[in-house]
Structure formats: C-alpha cells, structure tokens
Design goal:
This protein is mostly helical. It is about 85% helix and about 0% strand.
C-alpha cells in the first residue's frame, strides 16, 4: 500500500513533462551522490544516458560522454566530482524549462533588459 508521499510522487511523475522528468532524474542522481548511494546514483545517471535522443547527435554524444564520465566517478566513489557535473547539467535543463514556460512577450522583455545592462 502506498503512503501519501509515494502517491504524491507517483502523481508528480505521471503528470510531468518529458523535460521535467529529466530534471527529476538529475535530482535523484544528485541526491544519491550526496548520500553516497552508489546503486541509485548509477541507475539515475544510466537512465539519463539511456534516454538520450540521437536525432540531435552532437548534443547527445557530448552528454553521453559526460554521463559515462559521471558513471565512472560514481563507480570509483568520487561522488563529489560526479555531483558537480550533474548540478551544472541540471542547471542548464532548468534554464531550458524556464524559457520554454515563459511567455514570449516576457522573454523578449527580459532579453532587451539583459542587452541594455550589457551595453
């Protein structure tokens, strides 16, 4: 029988977008590295690697290499190194998710503001 938190997590997964599922996999991998849980960390990073979309070959191959490097670190119990890379990659995916969920007019305003600050 599911506990309330398990039921909530299941609903969260079932209703998540594919992009948010990627972020959730990063969260699991990062949390597992913090806890030095090799088995779960390996499963989470392997899931990220196995879900790569090779229709975007260059990006997929680069991520494949990074994920394999993370897996190697985890196997060597170098959790901090793997975590650092996973945190940076997760940040990039969160940025993509944020941009995809921001209305176009708000994106344009933000880009103009950033350009004005850079000038």
């Amino acid at each position: 029988m599911y506990s309330q938190s398990q039921a909530y997590r299941k609903q969260e997964v079932l209703s998540a977008t594919p992009l948010h599922l990627v972020i959730m996999a990063y969260d699991l991998a990062i949390r597992s590295c913090d806890q030095k849980d090799m088995q779960t960390a390996l499963k989470a990073v392997s899931a990220l690697r196995d879900a790569l979309d090779y229709d975007y070959a260059e990006i997929a191959l680069n991520l494949f290499s990074l994920y394999n490097w993370c897996l190697e670190c985890i196997r060597k119990e170098e959790f901090a190194q793997a975590k650092q890379t996973l945190v940076e990659l997760r940040g990039a995916w969160v940025m993509i998710e944020t941009r995809m969920n921001t209305p176009k007019t708000q994106q344009a305003t933000s880009e103009v503001s950033m350009a004005a600050r850079a000038a």
